[in-house]
Amino acid sequence: MAATEPDLKAARLPAEAYARNFADSHPALSHNQALVEAERCLYCYDAPCITACPTGIPIPDFIRKIANGNLKGSAHDILEQNIMGAVCARVCPTEVLCEGACVRNTPEDKAVAIGALQRHATDAVLDHGIQLFAAGAPTGKRVAVVGGGPAGLSCAHGLARCGHAVTVFEARAKLGGLNEYGIAAYKVAGQIPQREVDYLLAVGNIAVHVGQRLGHEITLPQLRRDFDAVFIGAGLGAVNSLGVADETVRGVHDAVAWIETLRQTGDLSTLPVGRRIVVIGGGMTAIDIATQTRRLGAEDVTIVYRRGPDNMGASAKEQRWAQINGVRIRHWARPSRLLTQDGSVSGVEFEYTTLDTVGKLLGTGERYSLAADMVFKAIGQLLVPDPLNDGGSALLDLDAGRIRVDDQRRTSLAGVWAGGDCAAGGLDLTVAAVEDGKRAAVSIDRFLTAAKAHG
Amino acid sequence: MADLTATLAGIRSPNPFWLASAPPADKAYNINRAFEAGWGGVVWKTLGEDGPPVVNVSGPRYGAIHTTSRQVIGFNNIELITDRPLQVNLGEIRQIKRDWPDRALVVSLMVPCEENAWKAILPLVEDTGADGIELNFGCPHGMSERGMGAAVGQVPEYVEMVTRWCKQYSRLPVIVKLTPNVTNILVPARAAKAGGADAVSLINTISAVMSVDLDTLAPSPSVDGLGAHGGYCGTAVKPIALRMVGEIARDPECAGLPISGIGGINTWRDAAEFMALGATNVQVCTAAMTHGFRIVGDMIDGLRNWMDEKGHATLADFTAKAVPKFVNWEHLNLDYVVKAQIDQDLCIGCGRCHIACEDTSHQAITREKDGKRHFEVIDAECVGCNLCVVVCPVDHCITLRELPAGSVDPRTGRVVGGYRNWTQHPNNPSR
Lengths: 455, 431
Ligand SMILES: Cc1cc2nc3c(=O)[nH]c(=O)nc-3n(C[C@H](O)[C@H](O)[C@H](O)COP(=O)(O)OP(=O)(O)OC[C@H]3O[C@@H](n4cnc5c(N)ncnc54)[C@H](O)[C@@H]3O)c2cc1C
Ligand SMILES: Cc1cc2nc3c(=O)[nH]c(=O)nc-3n(C[C@H](O)[C@H](O)[C@H](O)COP(=O)(O)O)c2cc1C
Ligand code: SF4
Fold this sequence. Notes:
Largest sheet of chain B: 8 strands, parallel, barrel
Bound molecules: flavin-adenine dinucleotide, flavin mononucleotide, iron/sulfur cluster
Distance between the termini of chain B: 51 Å
Strand content of chain A: 15-25%
Radius of gyration of chain B: 25 Å
Number of helices of chain A: 17
Number of domains of chain A: 3
Number of helices of chain B: 12
Oligomer: heterodimer
Structural class of chain B: alpha/beta
């Protein structure tokens, strides 16, 4: 008879394997490699890569500066548009952003390695502690930023440079948001998220209060009263449900929460992980939980996604990455039932899916099961709206469950801006959150300057 | 932050980067765009005397040498001076100077070698409000056959005479642009100084034939089946230009004659090199023609960052600092000894250093060790020539190591150190 207890174990791998498995998955370019790669850039006019970058980094310029030995100028070009350029260089899905637009793809199917070059330039200023920015002359205006993730910090930096006094309220113990708690460990090895946060805060004029959660220690009406403007970059706090019975049974996990534990575990050999893992979902989170559990020593990891490879939120490159890490990806099936034994999950039953003639997803009625010691839900996150309410009434208009904003990232409430994952219409990427924060800072500055001009 | 203000012959510009007299500085439209991009000054495309303008070919005027990755490293043209009417140019010059008072605007001129021709055009230029004039004594094609351009620049008496006319008939600063198509650049430079030039600029283009088309067996680029020599410039000419600038900068007879450096300048580094070797500012043509005006962004930013890093507050802090170190061969130390050294961790094993040294130099690099492929320098053979460093495809893999004073050079058996140049050397018969 098969073992019935879930097979959960720490230290599945030899001790030295952990450092190797969670080291930088794409190491830095050497000086020589960077020069050779920089020379491949054609220095296009009105370059398509710039348009494809959500923060509009002047890519050909920064690459030319690398080639000409002006690393400081290169980093300035990057960070001026994207203050989280060092993390973005590592975590952006460049294959669908800048590198996807590179004209080199046409003749030779090989883009210039823009991400790697961006890392080369930004690492140089971070490694040498070269501060390229300064806080502006004090304006006497005060802005509250809720959430110390990419959106909030980018906004805070932009405002500080304009001379406004910024206070960041962060619920967690550390700043960085999902850069610190969510992104796959091997993408951001070497404490880069915290080093970037330190660099960003060093501009000055930014006070940080951690352990302050909107809706608990602070409220929106209070912030509106005490500050001249408020920016909300609180991300998404809840996860979608699978819509099957027993979802709270032991062994079924929210992938994002589990990655958070992983990211904050110092010695990964102490983290228990299952032998057989089933991941439900098709985005970046699914890829990350699957790959990281494999790298923790899980033997058999399967991602199950209800549609085909082209529909997955994860790019083709990310899908390949999971596969070369030994993750199996099964398409066209959705969970119909959780299998449990003695109060723990033991597997998942899936129903095959197909599309009807108008493209609607249907179950075929045929089923199969996968045994599992752990099941991860990676099917998207949701905004927690409560902190945005005052008593029972909503203060901000929502749009498809997220905060409605205009192109300047203004919400429906005067004096309140929002951006990043919590705002509607975004890309759910670090780089998009940075752009939101940047745009909001420009808009807030305009608002505060106008307010000042009118007395 | 470093101050990039440059003053050449009394003409101030916010940075030392000027566009050379050439198509990028051909008309108001371009120059507006150039100034918007940040260029510190321009030398207007050469004007000729009033009357029907020159006529350019309508076939290809440019040719180039590319690297295999299509970077332009050498550029050639058979273009003449401006082919637009004089009055049109003068009107635009006046307007540009009015719109951009803080930028340098110099007008390049080339008229026949007659006093009256210069006397006629100078007041017209002065009247536009331009900051100075540059005498084009350099164009090696088309105009020289008509007794202008390089045909003047190659005759020192003419250089001096025309310069003197210009000083006499105009109060504008006079920059004499020199042709590199001479045996000794000091001769025209000294002539310009004798004529009263406020500065010299160099180099203009070098006479050249780019290539021969092996299908048509005609020089290319060819115009209706025939090709003419043209003027060569771009990256490839930089070493030639640098040397000529350095020669003038260290010539006692030319002392005090400011230099505007031109030739193959692509980046802030190139510019800094020209300035270190004596140029007060620089002019750029080909790099702008191949990438557009935006390249000045990195030129300004890169130069400033480098100056900040080195602690140079103004251009003067490093200008001409390399000049005293530019000497003739006979003053190099013959008792200084270096040996090549291959970093085995960086070596990728291509063998290029071995074959270069083995076939053409001093047989100083092994090909194997203990029966295995292995490249290592044999100190007893190495003359420190640098060939292996040049051919090695890996940055910093092969370096030259200085032998410490007091050690013995295993090649010569001589003790290293001290200073002894050729003028002091026992082997020198004329010592
Ligand atoms: C597992 C995973 C992997 C990902 N991988 C990538 C990737 O490789 N590349 C990529 O570009 N993007 C990736 N993303 C997406 C990216 O991380 C997010 O789009 C980005 O972090 C959004 O930034 P944000 O500032 O809007 O939100 P967050 O990063 O979520 O930051 C929000 C911050 O607000 C704080 N907060 C929340 N509620 C409150 C409150 N009530 N009061 C005060 N503070 C609060 C949070 O603690 C957090 O610090 C990934 C996301 C996940 C979940
Ligand atoms: C197409 C072309 C046209 C030129 N026309 C002129 C000219 O009219 N007058 C002049 O003084 N120099 C002229 N030049 C020479 C340039 O001003 C410059 O001296 C030379 O090209 C070297 O600089 P570079 O290597 O940066 O191109 C011309 C060069 C080119 C390429
Ligand atoms: S560069 Fe412009 S003018 Fe010259 S050949 Fe091409 S299109 Fe014609």
